[in-house]
Design brief:
The complex is a heterodimer of chains A (261) and B (166). Chain A is of the alpha+beta class and 261 residues long. Chain A is 38% helix and 28% strand. Chain A is globular. Chain A starts with a helix and ends with a strand. Classes of the chains: A alpha+beta (261), B mainly alpha (166).
């Protein structure tokens, strides 16, 4: 490597180290704001066009399953077809009213945001199209319309925000099982999540819902995190653990609700 | 057209191309099953064509945009790509004298493996400093993304070089 290339490399390495060590510095925040302002319109356009391609990607991947279930459903639905059309309209109306009522009961003020960009692994973080200009702040919780926790705002710029999903290795949520009220900690593993720190003498049932307990003071109480898939208990370990089935994997979402504090 | 204007248009074109590529990477490729890093391929191309300074600057700029969506601290992708550019330039200068299909494949393999290794090291170090935890190496290497990216980077780099150097 020649001298000039080495100098450029060293200067930029030092600059990157400065960014890492002073993440909340004004200069770094301004740079992030400018970069996201420049990129925002481009990723919004590409993300909207990509939705159509993803529809076909999913269709191709699930073609066999769709074909089988389609054949089964056609035979089942012949009798129910007329009832279903009216029921669907009523059900949709009912679901929307229930969401509205539930959120109002909990006095939750939410803001709808679209997911416009994702990290390479497509599970640990993503970008949404709402930022500090829309009243969004770091630390706010993201949920789906079914009140399932997706993650929280990790970083914020003017027009966009970066969300950290509950699958991220740094994500830890105090939780409890819905029926047996067994406490534990939902921990991200990068591509999956587990229900950890379950007392050795307690074993929750597979299929039981896990909800946030709010005891960590960080995450709101009473939101669904997932369902227990399998309990793992080893004699040489102090606590039991359980693998979790996410009811709404972050990879499959296009939009989220931000709980405004 | 004078040389000055031609240079100016080339720079504007390169910036525009860079932004479109960043948009495609963040909004399309990362969400799809195509686990490739377009910037890594571009850096490999610049290293193989001995445009070392351009490769270093591209690595830094690409890292800045990738960090906007990356789960770790801002600056980690930049640092990983910069060190990677340094490794690739050194490896190419030391081990390979000219562009051959073997050197394209070798630089592609070194590039992808080093990039995953650097990500593990840098993200691990940041995570260790912040939360006293270190992510497992297997999480980065034993998965579909790594295998796909390794194969795709080698194939795409070989195609680019076959087309531009035949």
């Amino acid at each position: 490597m020649n001298k000039s290339a080495l100098t450029v490399l060293l200067v930029l390495v030092l600059l990157s180290l400065f960014f890492i060590l002073s993440d909340h510095n004004r200069l770094v925040v301004s740079l992030k704001n400018y970069a996201s302002d420049i990129l925002r319109p481009i990723i919004i356009i590409i993300s909207k066009s990509a939705q159509k391609l993803f529809f076909w990607q999913d269709a191709m991947l699930n073609a066999r399953r769709v074909k089988e279930s389609n054949a089964r459903l056609i035979s089942e639905n012949l009798d129910l077809y007329s009832k279903l059309s009216t029921l669907t309209i009523l059900e949709e109306e009912n679901a929307l009213l229930r969401i509205n009522l539930n959120l109002k009961k909990k006095s939750i003020n939410v803001l709808l945001a679209n997911i416009i960009g994702r990290d390479l692994g497509n599970n640990r973080s993503f970008i949404i199209d709402k930022g500090s200009d829309d009243g969004v702040a770091a630390g706010m919780t993201l949920i789906t319309k079914d009140e399932i926790i997706i993650g929280r705002i990790a970083d914020i710029s003017r027009g966009t925000a970066k969300a950290q999903t509950l699958l991220d290795a740094n994500s830890r949520i105090a939780a409890t099982t819905a029926n047996s009220k067994i406490s534990g900690l939902v921990r991200g593993l990068g591509s999956d999540a587990i229900f950890d720190l379950i007392a050795k003498n307690k074993t929750p049932e597979a299929g039981e819902l896990i909800i946030s307990s709010g005891t960590d003071g960080v995450w709101p109480k009473g939101f669904i995190l997932g369902k227990i898939r399998e309990i793992k208990s080893y004699d040489n370990q102090v606590f039991n653990t359980a693998s979790i089935e996410l009811l709404s994997p972050p990879q499959s979402l296009n939009g989220v609700f931000i709980i405004l504090q | 057209m004078s040389l000055r204007y031609k240079k100016l248009f080339l720079i504007i074109g390169a910036i525009f191309f860079f932004l479109i590529l960043a948009g495609i990477q963040i909004a399309f490729i990362n969400a799809s099953l195509l686990k490739i890093n377009l910037f890594l391929i571009w850096i490999i191309y610049l290293v193989l064509t001995k445009k070392n300074i351009q490769a270093i600057i591209l690595a830094w700029c690409a890292g800045i945009f990738l960090d906007l969506v990356h789960f770790s601290v801002f600056g980690t992708s930049s640092l990983a790509l910069l060190i990677l550019a340094g490794i690739l330039i050194s490896a190419y200068n030391i081990a390979f004298l000219r562009v051959k299909s073997t050197s394209v494949v070798a630089i592609g393999v070194i590039g992808v493996i080093s990039y995953y290794l650097l990500n593990w090291l840098i993200i691990g170090a940041v995570s260790f400093l912040k939360n006293n935890t270190w992510e497992s190496l297997g999480f980065y290497f034993i998965n579909y993304s790594f295998v796909f990216e390794l194969a795709a980077t080698i194939i795409i780099s070989s195609i680019i070089f076959r087309k531009s150097h035949v």
